[in-house]
Amino acid sequence: MQLTDLKGISEKRAAELKKLGITDSAQLVRYFPRAYLDMTDRTGVTEVYHNDTALLACRLVSVEAPKMYSKSKAVRAWLEQDGISFTAVWFHMPYLAQRLRPGEYLFYGRVQNRYGQISLVNPTFEPLERNVRLRGLVPVYPLKGGVPQRVVRDAVLTALRTERIVSVIPQELQKKYALAPLAAAYRSVHAPESKEEARGAAERIALEEYFTLLSAFKLIKGDRQEARTHKYAVTEREVADFERRFPFPFTAGQQAAVRAIYDSVTGPVRMNRLLQGDVGSGKTAVALTGIFMALKSGFQAVYLSPTEVLAAQNHALLQKVFHEYRVGYLAGGSTAKEKREMKAALAAGEVDVLCGTHAVLQGDVHFRDLAFCVCDEQHRFGVAQRSVLGEKGASPDMLVMSATPIPRTLSLVFYGDLDVTTIPDKPLARQPVTTAIVPAYKYEDMLRYVRDACQKGRQAYFVCAKIEDDEGETTSVTELWEELKGRLPDVRFGLLHGRMKDREKTAVMAAFKGGEYDCLVSTTVIEVGVDVPNATIMVIMNAERFGLSQLHQLRGRVGRGSEKSWCFLMIGSDSDTARERLKVFKETSDGFALAEKDLELRGSGDFLGTRQSGHFLSEIKNLRYSSDVIFTAKKLTEEAFERRLNSEEIRAAALQKYESLKDVTLN
Fold first, then answer.
1. Which of 274, 411, 579, 664 is deepest in the core (most CB within 10 A)?
2. What is the H or E stretch that residue 545 is in?
3. SS3 267
4. DSSP-assigned states of every residue in 590-612
5. DSSP state of 302
């Protein structure tokens, strides 16, 4: 149903909701809260830590509209609570000046407290008189474009009264396992009476999603094994000789992985393998050895990377390692002429191995005889995207790699159709990285340490979770970049984020690697594959907002040279849960142990949560549920198919879900 067909939703309100990606009632009821506010938990502004979030009841005294020529278009408001004066500021939201009037308000957002000057950054707000009906737990939705919380809340409740919500899990199984009605779960997740009710509703909705997803996997992938098409002619001696091209001896784990790949490509069945290993375990060298097996046998190979920065880095590596072969490059930033010539050379067999980005997946990219595919950082590609890569040849062997360790429990579900090979050890050359949790009051000390290190010729990363933050709860990369340039004027800062064009990102990374910048202020686009040995400091802002596995990826960007390296975790929330998670991270360097602990502490809802690059099951990313939900869904799916309860409704929903995976990624 279109939004304007819902009672009380005007054209203007529908346009506001469209800013959130919501265009119909079905999307509206699936726009789940990211958190809940306890309306009794109001805070005094002087009791809040720097960069922490708080719910504040206060009086708005006056508002200042943005200056005409101001780049930030900042709106400022002067507030007062119990005789304490402070300010609120909204960047890039000039329209808010018309919405704010003197009076009593509830503000929710991040508090900055520097040198006694208190300010709220991009907070959400509602007049207090409108909140007399908001009691107990109130849903907080992800916002952008200045859309107020109350608009989303009211619209969702309206849609829930009219939207037909039906489970595709067979009725027989719903009764057998005493599953709550799906429609009731939707109502409870948007308007819970308690946290327990919200949790139960989230688990029921997640169960439905995973049942549909796993049904799609069964329908699309099945249990078939494909017979080998390409007959490899490479010998074990030739493979051993190739390994000596690398400036380090292969570890026992790398040797075992190479053996597994060799046994597969010389066996009777097409290889479909997941290669996972901790940061710095040497997966790339193993993958290149697999590529060599194909090239030596007279076939073509392709190495797919998730970003142009990483693709360019890998292209240079492949040119060095495969000096006797023809190495091509294809990415979105390539010129039209470069793309045209590369596609012609591939089809003619004039390129032996192609290194590229998503551009390789285009329909007009053809190989003469593709036999070996490497999909680097596979979690950054959708399921269907990897399938497209495999269709570029006649049943080529597929090696997908992940440096984000997937917990064993989840890998059994999502990669049950793959042979999983794990490299458990690390090259001896990697330096240990010391991790420190930095509270707000030590922020200035940490900045002084960074400045001193830069003056000695070292480099540092500053990483933020978001490019901009409409909700004001985290430090944004643009905000931090501006702040640091003012605080450390003698340090050169570069800026990198996902909205920049590929060529801009490549140029910034090249400049940082070349020493033109002392520090790089970035989003998580630098978390995979970026190799700058001179970078010895990693500063992660609002570290409690990241999963342990993602923190581990970021920490892996330093410790790549011979100098002592540090990872500083700036915390914006001083909760016991955040402290416990970060303490685990500080004391653990094993990525697989961290992945299992992350799943235990955060639950599957967060583990399969958000990334700057995209989402997997993005509609339920805000829900919290245990990993048991996934295994229950797996059990239900298997039972439905074994008992032939997989109806046409399941098939339609499953195929629609699979189609939606083309452009999304796994965290």
1. 274
2. none
3. coil
4. -HHHHHHHHHHHH-HHHHT-EET
5. E
Contacts of 199 (CB under 8 A, 6+ apart): 624, 625
What DSSP string runs through 621-666?
A: TT----THHHHHHHHHHHHHHHTT---HHHHHHHHHHHHHGGG---
What proportion of the chain, given as a percentage, has pLDDT over 90? 40
- Lowest average pLDDT, out of 34-38, 69-73, 197-201, goes to 69-73
Task: Report the amino acid identity of residue 78.
Answer: W
The pLDDT score that the predictor gives to residue 486 is: 87
pLDDT at 667 (0 to 100): 33
Residue in 48, 67, 50 with CA at minimum distance from that of residue 58: 48
Asked if 497 and 467 touch (Cβ cutoff 8 Å), the reply is yes
pLDDT band at 425 (very low <50, low <70, confident <90, very high): confident
Rounded to whole angstroms, how far apart are CA atoms 287 and 565?
28
- Other Cβ atoms within 10 Å of 156 Cβ, number: 24
Spatial distance between the Cα atoms of 653 and 637, rounded to a whole number of angstroms: 13
Other C-beta atoms closer than 10 Å to the C-beta of 330 total 24
User: For 134-171, what is each residue's pLDDT tens digit?
Assistant: 566 888 888 776 677 888 888 999 999 999 999 999 99
For residue 404, the model assigns a pLDDT of: 64
Rounded Cα–Cα distance for residues 217 and 534 (Å): 44
Count of other CB atoms within 10 angstroms of residue 353: 25
For CATH 3.40.50.300, list the domain ranges present in the chain: 236-423, 433-588
Residue 77 tokens, joined = 């408001």
Q: Which CATH class is domain 236-423?
A: alpha beta
Encoding tokens for residue 330? 């294809």
Residue, of 242 and 657, whose pLDDT is higher: 242
Q: How far is CA 666 from the centre of its chain?
A: 8
| Per-residue model confidence as pLDDT tens digits over 332-353 | 888 999 999 999 999 999 999 9
The 3-state DSSP composition of the chain as helix, strand, coil percent (nearest 5) reads: 40, 20, 35
Alpha carbons 307 and 313: distance in angstroms, whole number: 10
The token duo for 583 is 């303490």
CA-to-CA separations, 561 to 116, 302, 459, in angstroms, rounded: 40, 29, 11
CATH number of the domain located at residue range(s) 433-588 in this protein = 3.40.50.300
Query: Residue 160 is encoded by which pair of tokens?
Result: 């829930």
A 10 A CB-CB count for 547 gives 24
Q: How far is CA 259 from the centre of its chain?
A: 32
CB-CB contact of 665 with 381 (8 Å): yes
pLDDT at 408: 59
Residue 664: pLDDT band by 50, 70, 90 thresholds?
Answer: very low
Q: Which residues pair with 109 in a beta bridge?
A: 54
Residue range 645-660: average pLDDT?
78
Token pair of 543, please? 């570290």
State how far the Cα of 15 lies from the Cα of 22, in Å rounded to an integer.
Answer: 9
Contact 353/283 with Cβ under 8 angstroms?
A: no
CB 459 within 8 A of CB 531: no
Half-sphere exposure (CA, 13 Å, Cβ side) for 234? 27
